[in-house]
Amino acid sequence: MEPFKNLTGLVAPLDRPNVDTDQIIPKQFLKAVVRSGLGAGLFYDWRKQPDSQFVLEQPRFRNSTILVAGANFGCGSSREHAVWALADYGFRAVVAPSFADIFRNNCLKNGLLTVILKPDEIDTIFGAIKHHDSYQLTVDLPAQTVSDEFGWKAHFEIEPFPKKCLLEGLDDIAMTLAHENEIAAYERAHPVPFTERSATDP
Amino acid sequence: MAAQTLFDKIWNSHVVSEVAGQPALLYVDLHLVHEVTSPQAFEGLLNAGRKVRCPQRTFATMDHNVPTTDRSLPITDPDSKLQIEMMRKNCADFGVGLYDLGSREQGIVHVIGPELGLSQSGMTIVCGDSHTATHGAMGALAFGIGTSEVEHVLATQCLWQAKPKSMEIRVEGELGLGVSAKDLILGIIGRITTDGGTGYVIEYRGSTFEGLSMEERMTVCNMTIEGGARAGMVAADHKTVDYLRGRRFVPTGKQFDVLAEHWLTFHSDPDARFDRNLTFNASSFAPQVTWGTNPGMVTDVKSKVPDPASFNDPTQRRAVELALDYMALRPGTSIEEIRLDRVFIGSCTNSRVSDLKAAAEVVRGRKVAPNVRALVVPGSQLVKEEAEALGLDKIFTDAGFEWRESGCSMCLGMNPDILLPGERCASTSNRNFEGRQGAGGRTHLVSPIMAAAAAVAGHFVDVRDWTK
Fold it and tell me: Across the interface, which of B91, B104, B319 has its CB nearest the CB of A18?
């Protein structure tokens, strides 16, 4: 995974709560067998309606790299395609009052930063976007802050371990395999609980 | 030792390695795999030159993409076909057992896990699918993961996990006639809201859950994720042991007795403490119907579509407005007045034999309303076989339902079973998100008996009026 680098970018507002992963990437795109190219399916049903007023269809938000959304963003299905689609479209961070657990985990595995701010701080950002045409935010992960060029700044919490993984771009599998002795010892003490499989099916 | 919850017991017995302040490395007893969330994981293994560490703990099936019509015909959608072929190739190359399309035991991954006796009490169970919570009904810790984590489990049989908080949801008393496990869990989600469980593992406790059958417990645990919690569980008891006895992968004889004794230790100690406790009374639950675009937007069948103006919080009010606009519902409409185009009985929530039996009892001798097209999709081939042996297929087809092969089908419409834009469906599945069952489709979540009654009436009805 690529390490997360601090970023300053254009902010797109998605002011509704409970945006689910079916909405982020509809089912027809789940037939992909590779991780790439899913940006084309991002928010497909909302973007592709006739005369869509959806935020990403508005020219001023097209090159956004930071998405600001309502509470419980990413709820529903565990499809990692939602994260691949956001990243492929160009998003590097999502800012919301809260995230669904599986979605947040999936983001961390792909170097997409989830920033949790208080609801009133999110409202401040939504307000600022209305007032400034090319509103940008700067996300500083080591300092755990989000700020704008007008002097507004907010602090966010992130657990030390995911922070370290994001900053260093750690490959978890390699990290886990370093525990081979412990895993093997656990397996010796806990044999497979199933009866023998028949030779045929499966 | 301090008193432990069921969740603590399973967690503590699966920690392989732990460093203070970091997530724990947890061992995974059972990894279930399906065709949609696994191709990129196998590709990752291949690129890194890694193998599947424990093929004997890894089981695959095809469910999301599969046609539910005649299986002898070729799959027409080229993308679905490719994904299915990839699953076959990956399973063959990596030595993973596969319940393929032609298998007598193929089915929805969360139906076949318990059915084959793979999902057992005290286990850690994962799958690249959020409804993995279903297996918690066995007294297991079961949760959904993303594809990166699928790859991680394939390679290491472990996962790094920060320990979630614990929540007790206690319900006491008996559910009324016509009120099912589906109504219980929909009612709970309505009360805690769609993100009320975020960050928690839920244990369902109390006489109501003790009184449920294993399949009903699966329905409850299945929808845990719709309240935001990744895992839901019910303690193992004699019903769990009876359910597992004799199943395909469950050892027999003396070995079974030893296992059964072990399983029965998986309950919370009497004075175990939870981070949060909620208590409800079973008598407060009525048949439920969702009116909005997430499962928390739900109400009693005798109730009305809510008015956005009645919500004080502006964010919530706006969410309700958007939902009603999508659902094309006017505030104040009686739920029973909502007319339907489609009825879907199936999905990992409600496609087991007891679900189909209950629905068949409602439709027996009746006819599907002329304005409705209705579909029954058994959860697995074994469910289908058993249902047919009971003559349920005949009851459904006589009434005008279509009787299909097993799969996820119209729960998420990855196969040809989808709603057309604007169609309204009473569905026994788990998600009423916008476009979930087909772009522009409108989903109302209900229990199997409520779906069956709605199919006959052509609109929602209170099934309790029919069971008197």
Answer: B319
What gap in Å lies between CA B251 and CA A193, rounded to an integer? 8
Residues 6+ apart with CB under 8 A from B386: B353
* Spatial distance between the Cα atoms of B333 and B306, rounded to a whole number of angstroms: 8
Q: Dihedral sign for Cα A164, A169, A173, A174, please.
A: negative
pLDDT at A198: 45
How far apart, in whole angstroms, are the C-alpha atoms of residue B250 and residue B241? 11
Q: Chain B neighbours among A 61-120 (CB < 8 Å)?
A: 70-72, 75-80, 83, 98, 100-102, 105-106, 109-110
Cα distance between residue B30 and residue A192, in whole Å: 9
Contacts of B50 (CB under 8 A, 6+ apart): A173, B44, B154, B155
Chain B residue closest in CA terms to A161: B22
| Assembly ipTM | 0.96
Task: Please give the angle made by the CA atoms of A9, A14 and A15, to the nearest 5 degrees.
Answer: 125
For residues B448 and B283, what is the distance between their CA atoms, to the nearest angstrom? Answer: 20
Q: What percent of chain A has pLDDT over 90?
A: 90
- For the segment B209-222, what is each residue's pLDDT rounded down to a tens digit? 999 999 999 999 99
- In chain B, residues with a C-beta closer than 8 Å to the C-beta of A16 are 318-319, 322
Cβ burial of B22 (10 Å; 0-12, 13-18, 19+) is middle
Does the pTM surpass 0.80? The reply is: yes
d(CA A10, nearest CA chain B) in Å:
24
Is A31–B435 a contact, with Cβ atoms under 8 angstroms apart? no
Per-residue pLDDT tens over the stretch A27-53: 999 999 999 999 999 999 999 988 899
Angle at B37 between CA B36 and CA B38, to 5 degrees: 100
The beta-carbon neighbor of A17 closest among B50, B152, B315 is B315
Q: What is the pLDDT of residues B263-288, one digit of tens each?
A: 999 999 999 999 999 999 999 999 99
Residue B88 to residue B82: CA distance in whole angstroms: 10
The answer to whether residues B428 and B446 touch, using CB atoms and an 8 Å cutoff, is: yes
Measured in angstroms, the CA of A175 and the nearest CA of chain B are apart by 10
Q: Using CB atoms within 10 A of its CB, is residue A170 exposed (0-12), middle (13-18) or buried (19+)?
A: middle
φ and ψ at B96, to 5 degrees?
-100, 135
Structure-token match 């299909």, residue found: B404
- For residue A197, name the pLDDT band (cuts at 50, 70, 90): low
